[in-house]
Amino acid sequence: MKVLIVGATGPTGQELVKQALTSGHTVTVLARRPDKLSVPQPTGDSLKVIPGEVLKLDDVKGALTGCDAVISALGGKAGVFTSCDVYTKSLDVILKAMKELEVKRFIACTSWGTKDDPELPYLFRWVFKPSILRNVLANMEVMEDTLLKEEEINWTVVKPPRLMDGPLTGVAPLTMEGQLVRGLPGKVHIDRSDLAKFMLDCLTTSDWDRKLVAVAAGSCAVAEAAAEAASSEGNSVDGEKK
Ligand SMILES: NC(=O)c1ccc[n+]([C@@H]2O[C@H](COP(=O)([O-])OP(=O)(O)OC[C@H]3O[C@@H](n4cnc5c(N)ncnc54)[C@H](OP(=O)(O)O)[C@@H]3O)[C@@H](O)[C@H]2O)c1
Known about the structure:
This protein is α/β, with parallel strands linked by helices.
């Protein structure tokens, strides 16, 4: 497939580009600072890197021409007093370009808990969401709400918890439609490599078409099982007797 990747110079984006090439996709990258892309240039023409702005319609249309899908790993800066509009502004431009060029598939990344849910991890819900993540999550939420009303484009929004930088595990992530993967212990995460793989896998399945899908590392389920086993044996998770 021919894929346009935006946000490719971020850590998840770099993984997306690397794995997309390995999987045999033809990749176009639109980046305002292309020199930040550290993926080795493959031989042949499977990777095209175009300097430009994701917020400029002509730049996006130029990069998108000939592509079958768009994947976005764009990220806004978190901050209590830092406003964030990169998700909604880029979405407006990308959707317009996609419609004009009749490109139908869009896959993007936001986060767990853009909307409140009593099962969100305590620290996320009560410390980070109301403070440093507030503006970023609010803008992600507007982006998701816009997509939920979108009729022409086949979209998927992948929603990870805390991101880490481990290597590809090969273990399928846990998935659940909605704001979070329920029933996991407090410390949840996913490696960017596994997140990127899942986003790319969305290109070849219709399972998550027009859905918000929360993901978490497969290993989080192992941690949960261990916690349950320890609990039923009368031990706490770290091995101490209750
Ligand atoms: N960090 C976490 O624990 C966590 C948890 C859940 C969800 N997420 C979300 O997961 C996604 C991927 O995160 P990440 O850490 O891999 O990447 P990131 O650092 O959040 O994303 C950076 C990417 O977005 C681009 N970007 C930001 N503002 C831009 C703008 N105004 N115009 C054009 N490009 C812009 C950057 O381009 P430049 O290189 O040119 O700056 C870079 O390619 C993000 O949406 C993030 O919010 C993160």
